[in-house]
Amino acid sequence: FKTVEEAPVLIITGNRLPAEVGRGFEELGAMVHAVDEEDAGISLKQVMGVCWALGIHSVFCEGGGRLASGLLRAELAQRLLLFVAPFVLGSQGVPAFPGLVSRADWAGWSPVEDGKRMGRDLLLTYDRMR
User: Fold this and answer.
1) Distance between CA atoms of 77 and 62, rounded to whole angstroms?
2) Under a CB-based contact definition with an 8 Å cutoff, are residues 25 and 32 in contact?
3) Is 116 helix (H, G, I), strand (E, B) or coil?
4) Nearest partner of 69 among 43, 98, 45, judged by Cα
5) Which of 17, 21, 84, 129 allows an S-S link to 122, with CB 3.0 to 4.6 Å?
6) SS (HEC) of 58-86
7) What is the pLDDT along the chain (130 residues), one digit of tens a residue?
């Protein structure tokens, strides 16, 4: 919050955030927006609606598999940047997209270009076809 004047802080939270906590963040200079909560977490559609209303039309999400799966299920993602590393995690590995298991979950996605090597990793880029 020390640099809030140069780089605004936006906090989007579930609607159960205590009012005094929200006010505390606002007093530090943050913009606080509460959205509805759903079974899987906060409403991603409402989060994107808040962003759009604030003039934020491009969002980079790097929050893990649960967030990625939620964005895909809600059809809120336009582009996927997938990094594939040459490691086998075995049974202790965490799924990249938990809950997305069928071929139908991936219908409508098309590669933008051939994969790009990034050191030992491979970057795959897909766009949602409209």
Assistant:
1) 12
2) yes
3) strand
4) 98
5) 84
6) CCCCCCCHHHHHHHHHCCCCCEEEEEECC
7) 899 999 999 999 999 999 999 999 999 999 999 999 988 789 999 999 999 999 999 998 887 888 888 888 888 999 999 888 888 777 877 788 888 878 888 888 999 989 999 999 999 999 998 7
